[in-house]
Write a structure and sequence with these properties.
It comes from Streptococcus mitis. InterPro entries: Cof, HAD-like_sf, HAD-SF_hydro_IIB, HAD_sf. This is Cof family protein. The chain is built from 11 helices and 14 strands. The chain is of the alpha/beta class and 269 residues long. It folds into 2 domains: 5-81 and 193-267, HAD superfamily/HAD-like (Rossmann fold, 3-Layer(aba) Sandwich), CATH 3.40.50.1000; 86-190, Hypothetical Protein, Haloacid Dehalogenase-like Hydrolase, Chain: A, domain 2. The longest helix is centred in the middle third of the chain and has 14 residues, at 86-99. The chain starts with a strand and ends with a helix.
Length: 269
Amino acid sequence: MNIKLIISDIDGTVLDSKHQVDTKLIELMPSLKEKRIPFILSSARSPLGMASIVQELGIQNEPIACYNGALITKGDVILSQHPINQKEFLTIYEFIIREFPTVSINIYSGQDWIVESINKWEKNEAEITGETPIVTDVSDFIKKEDTIIHKLLLIDESKTIQKVQQILSEMNFVETDFYLSKDNYLEVTNKCVSKKQALLELVEYYGLTLEQVMTIGDNFNDLPMIETAGLGVAMGNAPLQVKSNSNIITSSNDEHGVSQVIEQVIFTN
């Protein structure tokens, strides 16, 4: 296939189970640059949560799709963004505070991660992403007219979070969507946000066709881009449903799956 663009997930894909970047992928990056094939990261992470990985891979001059595509940036330039409707956000926030006070509320706005306080959930997320949250009065922050919120992350025990998801999904929000990225992580974004939409926007940015793109991922939020790209790749550690909807299944994230499939598709003739 004539692949001209690669879009990859981060956690469980580019990173191994110890949250380290695939060393063989780092070694491949100069060869991809020689072939002028951009390698783009698409993740639920924030720009800061992706920064160290971008640097390790040496792809600072390429766009990144953050918050599952709610924000696409190239350096300091915003290429596209799809924030949460402010009125709907306030309704969700007030509902959580009132009905589920144990839930950890994490707000992502641009490069900022904003919390009311730090508990075990925030500490764990900080260890995974390498970010430090800003502790502030959340209610004051979200009520400012110029506030742009790209993602809301709700964390608690699995049983609680899945109950929250069920109730919120039944409240029929017009512009807001809810999905689990882990069994105890509920992601809240604008309804038009998905890795598929990010793929479509990046294809247009580079002036390519979908047939010229390879996408790589390991989880359900990666499925839209895996199914849409000309060549969709599932990691060996992906769930069966993700694998069954991909064109290729590569090795796991602990077995250099990303670098393996790139060598197979791009460098093996």
